[in-house]
Amino acid sequence: MKMMNKSEYQIAATIAVMLIFSIICYVYYSTQTNRTLGSERFHNSLVSSSLSIEAKVTVLHKIEKEFLLSRELHLQSVFDETIQAIYTELDSKWADNIVHNSAPLLKQLHVYHAAVEQQFKLHESIGLDQDSGLEGKLRNSAHKAEDLLIALKDDTLLSHLMYLRRHEKDYMLRGDDIYVEKFYDRIQKMRSILAQRNWSKDQKSELTQHLDGYEDNFQKWLVDRLNVQTVIKNTDNAFALTELYTKQLIRQAAEGTKAAAESNDNHRNVTSKILMLLGGICIIATILLVSMIMRHKKLAVKVEKLAKVDPLTSLPNRRHFFQKLNADVESEDSLSIGLIDLDGFKSINDIYGHAAGDQLLEAASARLTDQLQADVFLARLGGDEFGIILNTPQTEEKLFKLGERICMLLKQPFTLNFGTVSIGGTIGFAQFPEFAKTTETLFEYADYALYHSKFHSKGHPVLFSKEHESTILGQRKMEQCLIDANLEEELQVHYQPIVDTHSGRTVGMEALARWNNPQLGFVSPAQFIPAAENLGIISKLTTILMEKALKVASSWTTDTYLSFNLSASDLASPETPLKLMAIIMRSGFSPKRLVFEITETTMMVNFERANEVLRPFRDLGVEIALDDFGTGYSSLGYIQKMPIDRLKIDRAFVSDLEAKKISRDIMGTIVDLCSHLEIKCIVEGVETHKQLELVQLLGCHLIQGYYYSKPLPTDEANEFLKQNTNASMNDWQLVS
């Protein structure tokens, strides 16, 4: 049982002292006139009432703070009952009192009551648990999107959805704004990838609706969270004034009692009565004090229990789980945790209703409780997620066997009131202190293992391993190095030739980003470009690379153009296009020799915005190339609407040219389309002489690929141009 703290003891002692003093005053004045006797009783009553009000106000504050911790809805009714008791006390004892004015306290109590009611409503809106309010809507939207992606077997979007949910949970757990930015960047990427999918219109519309709902509810959740913080501050201020007015009321009552006592200083023969009654008074005061303390302890125990228990399953709840986990991490030498997620629960919930889902959760928790050993601490974390803590040392083999046993238990059919259903379970484990040194990291690693298992081996356990840790640490290290990097020095530009097979000349060079970090060495663009987008620094990379590329290209012959890639982030940024425009004008490089490469996905993310951004560059003479054609929307109808001058056929078509006639037919169609629309056609990824012959037979003569050259650093690229600008077709050799 929780012991009373120092302030509670002080309150109890004050009540005892004041009670004894009041009774002594009553005995002292008992020999005076009826008027004096009535006055003394009146003031004692006010003192007792004011102290009772103070005790109830203190309980109000504790109930409010317990609600913030547990978000248990029944505490609202407990709060309402307590404050109604105070209103009743003020109305019955103080309403007609013209000497002691209780109006300020009553008014402030209404202000405090209104602030707490607003706090309750905001928490109801956010969600009292993960199945209700905005948090429930967030989870529902995510589950609907997940089910659709599982049904469509789209592992890429499913992986992004898992990360999206991790960003949401990270922000809820840590409150760091970086996770909000990651959330919006991730959902934007998902929309971009969705735009590339060759799905039906209904499928795209359904996933878009789920993503929009997810993003909208997350935005509402952020707004309500900020409102909650403001309301909590207002509530604390309101309580401070309430407490002040309560103390003023106590002081007024005490001063009235003292004045009444001093007015009768001519009493006689009262000393003996005081001594006779003093013992009885002390006993009464002690009984009242003990009764108050016991009621307080019972209420505290009840509130504490309700705050730690899940009302549906009677298991420890999320708050209790983290309290124990924090304590165990501080005191234990080693421990393991597992996070369990029920597979297929949402389908049961959707088909049979929430009541059926609740029955299933109760049955699953009962089965796990019955079958798991006593040293396994089991808790419901919310929704269909459970957590376990094992304080005894565990080998990886034991953990894996326990995980398999849990998964097998959950695979067995459940016979419920509405019928028999079958689901499954997936579990992720993490160990302390082998990998994680803190509670937050331990939970994060177990969560990573769980979602890794759901993505790669659903229905089976996964133990967080060194490989997982290396992946996470490597990503974090790379991101930190990217943040700390001297990008002006570390970023490099390599150039890949674009050759005209009619003349045998190199007519252009595509600029490709390279990063050579002192700690990491050369990092693949496939790794650092997405990382830069996640960190929000891609525009910085773009401007640095543009300056470097234009500086090199200025030394080329005037009939050799530079091709430069722009990302969706570059087009979406309000500043980056202006910076690029300034760089071009400052470089002295002719805009007519510059080509911006934009992927289909980038162009279609926001078609109107892309047109708006690219128009000023086209007015200068910059040409626009549609890159990786055939991997994105692949809609020929959109080509005529796009502001493009060139089209680059993706290497995926080239690799199948020799083996698949359909690839040759598609490429021939694209070449014919370019010819009719009078736009230049460039084929990427040509690596063999046979591929080159087939491409030429199909009518394309602008070629880029390893057949001619890999991407080259600046010095080698310049030397390549000198040697090959006037070369004939017979002079080319395969460059590996």
Characterize the structure shown.
With 736 residues, the chain is an alpha/beta fold. Mean pLDDT is 82; it is low at 732-736. Helix 2 (34-70) runs antiparallel to helix 3 (74-93). The protein is elongated and about 125 Å long. A hairpin with a 3-residue loop joins strand 9 and strand 10. The protein folds into four domains: 6-125 and 246-308, no CATH class; 133-227, de novo design (two linked rop proteins); 318-464, 2-Layer Sandwich (Alpha-Beta Plaits), CATH 3.30.70.270; 487-729, TIM Barrel (Alpha-Beta Barrel), CATH 3.20.20. It has 27 helices and 16 strands. The strands form three sheets. It has an eight-stranded mixed beta barrel, surrounded by four helices. A five-stranded mixed sheet has the order 2-3-1-6-7, sandwiched between helices. Strands 4-5 form a two-stranded antiparallel sheet. Helices cover 64% and strands 13% of the residues. InterPro entries: Cyclic-di-GMP_PDE-like, EAL_dom, EAL_sf, GGDEF_dom, HBM, Nucleotide_cyclase, Rev_trsase/Diguanyl_cyclase.
Which features would summarize this protein structure in a list?
Alpha-Beta Plaits; 64% helix; 736 residues; 5-stranded mixed beta sheet; 27 helices; alpha/beta; disordered C terminus; de novo design (two linked rop proteins); 8-stranded mixed β-barrel; elongated
